[in-house]
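The data layer described in this paper is built around a simple, fixed record for each protein. We quote a single record here, exactly as it is kept in our systems:
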Amino acid sequence: MNIDEACVTCIINQSVKVARAIDADEKLTQKLTSTVENLSKDFSFKQNPPEIASYVYENMAEIANKKDLYDEVKELSTQKALSFVPILKEKLSITENKLLTATKIAVAGNVIDLAAAVEFSLEEELEKIFHTDFSHNDMDIFQKELERAKNVVLLGDNVGEHIFDYMFIETLQELYPSIEFTYMVRGNPIINDVTMKEAQACGFDTLCNLVDSGVNTPGFSYNRANRKAQELFDNADLIISKGMGNYECLTPPKRDNICFLLKVKCGVVGSALDKEVGDIICKML
Protein backbone atom coordinates (compact mmCIF):
# COMPACT_ATOMS: atom_id res chain seq x y z
CA MET A 1 0.00 0.00 0.00
CA ASN A 2 1.32 3.43 -0.93
CA ILE A 3 1.65 6.44 1.34
CA ASP A 4 -0.92 9.20 1.58
CA GLU A 5 -0.81 12.69 3.11
CA ALA A 6 -1.34 11.37 6.63
CA CYS A 7 1.79 9.21 6.28
CA VAL A 8 3.85 12.29 5.40
CA THR A 9 2.86 14.04 8.63
CA CYS A 10 3.49 10.87 10.62
CA ILE A 11 6.99 10.41 9.20
CA ILE A 12 7.88 14.04 9.90
CA ASN A 13 6.67 13.60 13.49
CA GLN A 14 8.93 10.58 13.88
CA SER A 15 11.96 12.89 13.71
CA VAL A 16 10.80 14.41 17.01
CA LYS A 17 10.54 10.93 18.55
CA VAL A 18 14.07 10.14 17.42
CA ALA A 19 15.38 13.38 18.91
CA ARG A 20 13.82 12.52 22.25
CA ALA A 21 15.08 8.95 22.16
CA ILE A 22 18.71 9.99 21.63
CA ASP A 23 18.42 12.95 24.03
CA ALA A 24 19.35 15.37 21.26
CA ASP A 25 20.10 18.99 22.10
CA GLU A 26 18.13 21.83 20.52
CA LYS A 27 20.54 22.21 17.59
CA LEU A 28 20.53 18.52 16.68
CA THR A 29 16.77 18.31 17.14
CA GLN A 30 16.27 21.18 14.72
CA LYS A 31 18.60 19.57 12.20
CA LEU A 32 16.77 16.26 12.38
CA THR A 33 13.31 17.76 11.98
CA SER A 34 14.28 20.22 9.23
CA THR A 35 16.04 17.46 7.29
CA VAL A 36 12.97 15.21 7.39
CA GLU A 37 10.69 18.11 6.47
CA ASN A 38 12.87 18.83 3.45
CA LEU A 39 12.95 15.17 2.46
CA SER A 40 9.16 15.03 2.71
CA LYS A 41 8.83 17.49 -0.17
CA ASP A 42 10.09 14.78 -2.52
CA PHE A 43 8.30 11.75 -1.08
CA SER A 44 6.99 9.53 -3.86
CA PHE A 45 3.36 8.56 -3.50
CA LYS A 46 4.18 5.45 -5.50
CA GLN A 47 6.15 4.04 -2.55
CA ASN A 48 4.87 2.45 0.63
CA PRO A 49 5.57 3.91 4.10
CA PRO A 50 8.42 1.51 5.01
CA GLU A 51 10.24 2.31 1.76
CA ILE A 52 10.00 6.04 2.54
CA ALA A 53 11.07 5.43 6.15
CA SER A 54 14.18 3.54 5.06
CA TYR A 55 15.98 6.55 3.62
CA VAL A 56 14.50 8.98 6.17
CA TYR A 57 15.97 6.96 9.01
CA GLU A 58 19.24 6.45 7.19
CA ASN A 59 19.55 10.23 6.95
CA MET A 60 18.68 10.71 10.61
CA ALA A 61 21.18 8.05 11.70
CA GLU A 62 23.91 9.77 9.68
CA ILE A 63 23.08 13.19 11.15
CA ALA A 64 23.04 11.80 14.69
CA ASN A 65 26.21 9.78 14.02
CA LYS A 66 24.46 6.78 15.51
CA LYS A 67 24.12 3.47 13.67
CA ASP A 68 21.22 2.23 15.81
CA LEU A 69 19.03 5.18 16.79
CA TYR A 70 16.97 3.21 19.28
CA ASP A 71 19.56 0.85 20.78
CA GLU A 72 18.94 1.88 24.40
CA VAL A 73 15.17 1.90 23.95
CA LYS A 74 15.25 -1.54 22.34
CA GLU A 75 17.11 -2.98 25.31
CA LEU A 76 14.44 -1.60 27.63
CA SER A 77 11.70 -3.01 25.39
CA THR A 78 13.31 -6.43 25.53
CA GLN A 79 13.61 -6.41 29.31
CA LYS A 80 10.02 -5.25 29.68
CA ALA A 81 8.76 -8.00 27.37
CA LEU A 82 10.82 -10.62 29.23
CA SER A 83 9.20 -9.60 32.51
CA PHE A 84 5.85 -10.85 31.19
CA VAL A 85 7.11 -14.25 30.02
CA PRO A 86 6.42 -16.19 33.28
CA ILE A 87 2.78 -15.12 33.50
CA LEU A 88 2.26 -15.73 29.76
CA LYS A 89 3.76 -19.21 30.04
CA GLU A 90 1.34 -19.92 32.86
CA LYS A 91 -1.50 -18.66 30.66
CA LEU A 92 -0.41 -21.04 27.89
CA SER A 93 -0.18 -23.97 30.30
CA ILE A 94 -3.82 -23.71 31.35
CA THR A 95 -5.53 -22.52 28.17
CA GLU A 96 -7.94 -24.78 26.33
CA ASN A 97 -6.93 -23.28 22.97
CA LYS A 98 -3.15 -22.97 22.75
CA LEU A 99 -3.10 -21.79 19.15
CA LEU A 100 -5.48 -18.91 19.81
CA THR A 101 -3.74 -17.91 23.05
CA ALA A 102 -0.26 -18.01 21.49
CA THR A 103 -1.48 -16.04 18.47
CA LYS A 104 -2.95 -13.36 20.72
CA ILE A 105 0.30 -13.18 22.69
CA ALA A 106 2.14 -12.59 19.42
CA VAL A 107 -0.31 -9.86 18.42
CA ALA A 108 -0.11 -8.23 21.86
CA GLY A 109 3.62 -7.77 21.32
CA ASN A 110 2.87 -5.76 18.20
CA VAL A 111 2.02 -2.71 20.34
CA ILE A 112 5.78 -2.19 20.79
CA ASP A 113 6.14 0.13 17.82
CA LEU A 114 8.21 3.31 18.07
CA ALA A 115 7.01 4.64 14.72
CA ALA A 116 3.27 4.29 15.32
CA ALA A 117 1.08 7.37 15.25
CA VAL A 118 -0.84 6.04 18.26
CA GLU A 119 0.97 4.44 21.19
CA PHE A 120 -0.47 1.65 23.35
CA SER A 121 0.48 0.27 26.75
CA LEU A 122 1.90 -3.25 26.67
CA GLU A 123 0.58 -3.92 30.18
CA GLU A 124 -2.95 -2.86 29.22
CA GLU A 125 -2.80 -4.85 26.00
CA LEU A 126 -1.82 -8.04 27.79
CA GLU A 127 -4.59 -7.53 30.34
CA LYS A 128 -7.35 -7.27 27.76
CA ILE A 129 -6.22 -9.14 24.65
CA PHE A 130 -7.36 -12.57 25.82
CA HIS A 131 -10.86 -11.14 26.19
CA THR A 132 -10.78 -9.25 22.89
CA ASP A 133 -11.97 -10.79 19.62
CA PHE A 134 -10.08 -10.34 16.39
CA SER A 135 -11.85 -7.63 14.42
CA HIS A 136 -10.93 -9.59 11.31
CA ASN A 137 -10.84 -13.23 12.34
CA ASP A 138 -9.39 -15.84 9.97
CA MET A 139 -8.16 -18.13 12.78
CA ASP A 140 -10.04 -21.12 11.34
CA ILE A 141 -8.35 -20.69 7.95
CA PHE A 142 -4.99 -20.04 9.65
CA GLN A 143 -5.32 -23.29 11.61
CA LYS A 144 -6.19 -25.30 8.50
CA GLU A 145 -3.15 -23.92 6.66
CA LEU A 146 -0.91 -24.83 9.60
CA GLU A 147 -2.30 -28.35 9.63
CA ARG A 148 -1.18 -28.97 6.04
CA ALA A 149 2.02 -26.89 6.02
CA LYS A 150 5.51 -28.37 5.97
CA ASN A 151 7.47 -25.12 6.14
CA VAL A 152 6.39 -21.78 7.59
CA VAL A 153 8.16 -18.41 7.52
CA LEU A 154 7.41 -15.85 10.23
CA LEU A 155 8.37 -12.28 9.30
CA GLY A 156 9.56 -10.54 12.46
CA ASP A 157 8.84 -6.92 13.23
CA ASN A 158 10.09 -5.05 16.30
CA VAL A 159 12.41 -5.60 19.23
CA GLY A 160 10.52 -6.54 22.39
CA GLU A 161 7.80 -7.97 20.20
CA HIS A 162 10.32 -10.65 19.20
CA ILE A 163 10.16 -12.10 22.72
CA PHE A 164 6.49 -12.89 22.15
CA ASP A 165 7.31 -14.21 18.67
CA TYR A 166 9.69 -16.67 20.34
CA MET A 167 6.88 -17.94 22.56
CA PHE A 168 4.60 -18.11 19.52
CA ILE A 169 7.01 -20.28 17.55
CA GLU A 170 7.67 -22.48 20.61
CA THR A 171 3.95 -23.15 20.88
CA LEU A 172 3.54 -23.74 17.13
CA GLN A 173 6.38 -26.26 17.26
CA GLU A 174 4.61 -28.06 20.09
CA LEU A 175 1.32 -28.13 18.19
CA TYR A 176 2.81 -28.87 14.75
CA PRO A 177 6.09 -30.75 15.30
CA SER A 178 6.45 -31.72 11.62
CA ILE A 179 6.65 -28.10 10.41
CA GLU A 180 10.00 -26.44 9.74
CA PHE A 181 9.84 -22.86 11.02
CA THR A 182 11.92 -19.90 9.83
CA TYR A 183 12.13 -16.56 11.62
CA MET A 184 13.14 -13.74 9.29
CA VAL A 185 14.64 -10.47 10.56
CA ARG A 186 15.68 -7.14 9.06
CA GLY A 187 19.05 -6.50 7.50
CA ASN A 188 19.71 -3.46 9.72
CA PRO A 189 18.00 -1.71 12.67
CA ILE A 190 16.16 1.16 10.84
CA ILE A 191 13.69 2.06 13.63
CA ASN A 192 13.31 -0.49 16.45
CA ASP A 193 13.26 -3.39 14.02
CA VAL A 194 14.49 -6.80 15.12
CA THR A 195 17.80 -7.87 13.56
CA MET A 196 20.11 -10.88 13.90
CA LYS A 197 21.67 -9.29 16.98
CA GLU A 198 18.49 -9.30 19.06
CA ALA A 199 17.18 -12.58 17.62
CA GLN A 200 20.39 -14.44 18.42
CA ALA A 201 20.53 -12.90 21.88
CA CYS A 202 17.25 -14.59 22.85
CA GLY A 203 18.03 -17.91 21.13
CA PHE A 204 16.14 -17.93 17.85
CA ASP A 205 19.18 -19.53 16.19
CA THR A 206 18.67 -22.66 18.30
CA LEU A 207 14.86 -22.50 18.29
CA CYS A 208 14.34 -22.49 14.51
CA ASN A 209 15.86 -21.47 11.19
CA LEU A 210 16.96 -17.85 11.65
CA VAL A 211 17.47 -15.76 8.50
CA ASP A 212 18.62 -12.21 7.83
CA SER A 213 16.31 -10.94 5.08
CA GLY A 214 18.77 -8.22 4.06
CA VAL A 215 15.98 -5.62 3.78
CA ASN A 216 16.70 -2.08 4.93
CA THR A 217 13.04 -1.16 5.32
CA PRO A 218 10.81 -1.49 8.43
CA GLY A 219 8.76 -4.09 6.59
CA PHE A 220 9.52 -7.03 4.28
CA SER A 221 10.19 -5.30 0.97
CA TYR A 222 10.56 -8.28 -1.37
CA ASN A 223 12.65 -6.44 -3.98
CA ARG A 224 15.18 -5.42 -1.33
CA ALA A 225 15.48 -8.88 0.21
CA ASN A 226 18.49 -11.08 -0.47
CA ARG A 227 18.12 -14.13 -2.70
CA LYS A 228 17.92 -16.60 0.17
CA ALA A 229 15.12 -14.66 1.81
CA GLN A 230 13.24 -14.36 -1.47
CA GLU A 231 13.50 -18.11 -2.10
CA LEU A 232 12.28 -18.92 1.40
CA PHE A 233 9.42 -16.46 1.01
CA ASP A 234 8.43 -17.88 -2.39
CA ASN A 235 8.62 -21.53 -1.37
CA ALA A 236 7.06 -21.48 2.10
CA ASP A 237 3.69 -23.16 2.46
CA LEU A 238 2.59 -20.35 4.76
CA ILE A 239 3.88 -16.86 5.58
CA ILE A 240 3.04 -15.33 8.96
CA SER A 241 3.47 -11.56 8.66
CA LYS A 242 3.77 -9.60 11.91
CA GLY A 243 2.92 -5.92 12.20
CA MET A 244 1.88 -2.96 10.08
CA GLY A 245 5.20 -2.48 8.27
CA ASN A 246 5.09 -5.96 6.79
CA TYR A 247 1.42 -5.47 5.92
CA GLU A 248 2.19 -2.19 4.15
CA CYS A 249 4.96 -3.83 2.13
CA LEU A 250 3.02 -6.97 1.23
CA THR A 251 -0.28 -5.49 0.09
CA PRO A 252 -1.35 -6.02 -2.56
CA PRO A 253 -0.12 -9.52 -1.64
CA LYS A 254 2.98 -10.88 -3.39
CA ARG A 255 1.74 -14.46 -3.10
CA ASP A 256 -1.01 -16.65 -1.62
CA ASN A 257 -1.21 -17.94 1.94
CA ILE A 258 -0.05 -14.95 3.95
CA CYS A 259 -1.48 -14.58 7.44
CA PHE A 260 -1.29 -10.97 8.64
CA LEU A 261 -1.18 -10.59 12.41
CA LEU A 262 -1.21 -7.02 13.69
CA LYS A 263 -2.76 -4.34 15.82
CA VAL A 264 -4.13 -1.36 13.90
CA LYS A 265 -2.14 1.67 15.09
CA CYS A 266 -2.93 4.29 12.46
CA GLY A 267 -5.89 5.49 10.44
CA VAL A 268 -4.27 4.79 7.08
CA VAL A 269 -3.85 1.06 7.79
CA GLY A 270 -7.25 1.06 9.46
CA SER A 271 -8.85 2.41 6.29
CA ALA A 272 -7.03 -0.16 4.15
CA LEU A 273 -8.42 -2.93 6.36
CA ASP A 274 -11.79 -1.21 6.89
CA LYS A 275 -11.12 -1.39 10.65
CA GLU A 276 -10.60 0.99 13.55
CA VAL A 277 -7.42 2.06 15.33
CA GLY A 278 -6.94 -0.37 18.22
CA ASP A 279 -8.45 -3.38 16.44
CA ILE A 280 -6.51 -6.65 16.33
CA ILE A 281 -6.28 -8.49 13.05
CA CYS A 282 -5.80 -12.07 11.88
CA LYS A 283 -6.26 -11.87 8.13
CA MET A 284 -5.44 -14.53 5.55
CA LEU A 285 -4.73 -13.50 1.96
Notes: The chain has two domains: 5-64, 71-284. The chain has a mean pLDDT of 95. Residues 5-64 form one domain. The longest helix spans residues 5-21.
